[in-house]
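Problem 12. The chain below contains 104 residues. Write out its predicted structure in token notation.
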Amino acid sequence: MISKLLNKLKSLLFKNSVPSETTLVNAKKTTNSAKTSKSKSKKTDSKKSIQTLKALPGVGSKCAKALYDAGFKSTKSIISANEKDLLAVPGVGINLVKKLKNLK
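Solution.
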């Protein structure tokens, strides 16, 4: 009761410069929805990139995800990568590296 009275007094004295509880709740909702939409767009971008990587010969779903997680986001980055860097990715063997190097 006293806190409501103090909030009312503050709002009258400072001419509504103190945000009310409802505006704080609304602000939290908008920031949460913005975070959710960003995470959804990142997921769809990663799925598209993984689908693109699967187009390479010899690259399956697991290998494409491992390459994406290792930092190879495009087919050009994989083709131009060093053999040692590709072999460092789990699930990538020498035969796959040879297939990818023949694409150049």
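Discussion. The helical segments are 2-13, 21-53, 61-69, 75-79, 83-87, 94-101. Students who got a different answer should revisit the alignment rule from Section 12.3.
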